Amino acid sequence: MTEYTRFERLVAEAKKNITEISPQDVAAKSQNGEAVIVDVREKDEWDEEQIPDATHLSRGTIELDIEEKVPDLNALIICHCGGGGRSALAAESLQKMGYRNVRSMDGGFKAWKAAGLPTEK
Predict the structure, then answer these.
(1) Is there a catalytic annotation at residue 79?
(2) In terms of CB atoms within 10 Å, which end of the chain has fewer, N or C?
(3) What is the DSSP letter of 37?
């Protein structure tokens, strides 16, 4: 059996409680204005390259800042990070705060880029 790091175990537990969504579905929902895309990566990662029309709320401050950015508890919020771990934790946390329609992008920004979806710098 593979030994997981504590972080990997935490992410695996979070993923049991959240819904993941493919980068292609995220792109479709972003294009038609159906979802708020929240990038939970660190500022230096965001500054390097990001998904067009995404909002940056780093993992460290998302709980503090989300209510101001997205006051509607029913809004579709899709979190993403670099690989899908931090966004799973953020999605779980937002659900605990009462947000009813939170998703985490499966595979994160790496999967978005691998799918050939648009980015901006």
Answers:
(1) yes
(2) N
(3) E
